[in-house]
Amino acid sequence: MRQHIDAAIATALARMKAMLPRFTEQFPAPASSNDQYPVIDNVEWTNGFWIGMLWLGYQFCGDEDLRAAAEKQVRSFTHRVENRIATDHHDLGFLYSLSCVAAWKIVGDAAARTSAIEAAKLLRRRYLPVAGIIQAWGDLSDPEQAGRMIIDCNLNLPLLYWASNETGDPSYREVANNHADRAARYLVRPDDSTFHTFYMDPKSGAPIRGTTHQGFSDDSCWARGQAWGMYGFPLVYRYSGMTSLIALSARLGNYFLARLPADHVCCWDLVFTDDNVERDTSAAAIAVCGLLEMARQMPPADAGRARFETAAEAILLSLIDHYALAEHDPGDGLLREAVYHMPKRIGVRERVIWGDYFYLEALMRYKTVWDPYW
Fold first, then answer.
1. Could you tell me the pTM of the whole model?
2. Which one of 35, 88, 152, 218 is the catalytic residue?
């Protein structure tokens, strides 16, 4: 296993280095087109994943080119938050945990720390106190978006906990705790599947309905959403100590694992288990990180811990052997066969930048005991 992981890391780093000439000043788009990422400015919710990959790469091998590229890109995140460029959404955790929090943790960049705290302030402003949630998208006065939370936000909450620890201000933590509580209550169904999105009445706080945005149907279980839950709830537990979240994430994990095809890599929605349906390797990579995180939080004697570690290894080995790109394969990215948005047919059977990031993070988790940027 160790040699397998080391070889996969070496291949991933070589492919990243080949992308550096195009992605030092600018960023990969969320999804590739014909296997190549278009070049974009720092305007998407996904821009943190590429710089997160640069930081991971630097931690793997100490490559100064990767560090220099990451430090150059950090400045664009400062510019983005100071000028409020495409910040009217909840994905500030995806953006700033992997860029500025990582820069503070790894190289002690004080300016990056300031930018991450400013991003946490913007995220805190999206909190709807009566509903007890962080609104996902759009202007807070937009009635079509009012009161909507989505399961992806689990990965944005660590930015709030980090800011609370850094500043001593408990309000960040309170917002994160309240949102996590509502997510556990309303996004998770009785059968341990998850809604992608859920609407709360922002005036009364009453639950309204669960829906999907990217899944097969409102009643199905979007694979990436389930993976966000599997990973996000254990990360919240790290900070909050809400012990119920470990048992909850384990239930989500069991639901996910029971619906995998023979090669252990999930279809894009868990209503499907057929080998002929499009996979989402990005959801599989997120799930590996989630399974390893929840296992890390379980007592050593807990039978679930060994089960989840074994399952994570099986998924990761399948990704390495069947879906990871070789060093000289054409195009960009690390993993093929991902799906961005199936209902809109965007990024289907392409590479997606968060899939590349979580694949690299999963390799890091096998390589060493790693301090997450989350």
1. 0.98
2. 152
